[in-house]
Amino acid sequence: GEVLKTNTYKVNEDLSISETEDTTTIERTRIIYESPYLIIDTKYKPSKVEIKRIPKNEFSELGLGADLKDNHILSSAATVKLIENHKNHLNEQLTTSLMNTYATKEELSNIVTTIPTIPDDLVNNETLTNILNEYYTKSAAEEQFVNEDELAYELQKYQEKGDYALKTDIPTIPDDLVNTETLTNTLNEYKQSLQASLDDYALKSSIPIIPSDIVNNETLMNTLNDYRTKDDLITTSIKHMQFERVSEIEYKTDPFRNNVYMKGTYTNSSDVEVRFDFMFQKYNDSGENDWRSHPFPDKPSLVIVWYHNITTDIYTLHIISGNSLPFTLEDMY
């Protein structure tokens, strides 16, 4: 049948566990105590584990537990005994302390007969000091005060010198006065505020003189209507140009010609129909095959574009203000 082996171990003073002399070592067996667990490390399963506690001295005094350690285990009876020992120890200390601190009734009765009656109007030193602080000593009073005759004599001398005056002779000081620093800061704030306001203006001497012989753009355009530019001196017998609507935003026209009068209407971004009658004059922002005119001085974003498609050789006319606007062309000449 199965052979059982019994191994016996003991717990050392340092809480390590070692085998007793009558134990046959089992291969790879290790026993470790890690409170509150007992760990058995072996490849063989133990069939039974027993723990026995053998006191070193059954008759040792428990006392107040001064020799106990964290890993010691007490029985219920030992715990009760330890508590009782502490109670007795505290009673002894308390009794000794009270007897040394307090007197007995008999001792007190002997003392009372010898104590004189204490007056009930006494004050302690602190109270006395606080009261006396409100008073002058004799020597201090002589230094701080003069008699009435001496005071009148001294005042008379200073009054004759003009060093002193009666309160009734002192004028009332206005309560709305300010010191120099406050006045300076206030004036600086006004100065900065005034300077900020003046920054929007110019001195008369800085304003250039406007010549008296200049004309505005409208007057210039009206005057130039009777003229042609040097690069447009070719004359023709055809006064009116041909044009054909392609869509509501585009017309197909005859080839480009500068200084052509155009009449018609266009619809602005607010869906309002606006009439126009102007001379198309190409501006500096014109290209080689797209010519631009800005005929409305009050509407700089409104541009008339005359475009030449070199692939189809077709000329078209558009009115643009951000996007192409619908327009109706009535005449070109």
- Uncertain residue segments: 234-238
> CA-to-CA gap between the ends?
134 Å
Helix content: 25-40%
Task: Using the alpha-carbon principal axes, give the shape.
Answer: flat
Note the beta-strand portion: 15-25%
pLDDT averaged over residues: 80
Structural class: alpha+beta
Tally the beta strands. 13
Summed up:
The chain is of the alpha+beta class and 333 residues long. Helices cover 27% and strands 20% of the residues. About 2% of the residues have low confidence.
Topology, pairings included?
Layout: E1 9-11, E2 17-19, E3 30-34, E4 37-41, H1 76-101, H2 105-112, H3 125-132, H4 138-144, H5 148-161, H6 180-198, H7 217-224, E5 243-247, E6 250-253, E7 260-267, E8 273-280, E9 290-293, E10 303-309, E11 314-321, E12 323-324, E13 327-332
Antiparallel strand pairs: 1-2, 3-4, 5-6, 6-11, 7-8, 7-13, 9-10, 10-11, 11-12
Keywords:
single chain, 333 residues, alpha+beta, 3-stranded antiparallel β-sheet, 7 helices, 27% helix, flat
How does this structure look, described?
This protein has 333 residues and is of the alpha+beta class. The protein contains seven helices and 13 strands. Strands 5, 6, 9, 10, 11 and 12 form a six-stranded antiparallel β-sheet that branches. Strands 8-7-13 form a three-stranded antiparallel β-sheet, with no helix packed on it. The protein is flat.
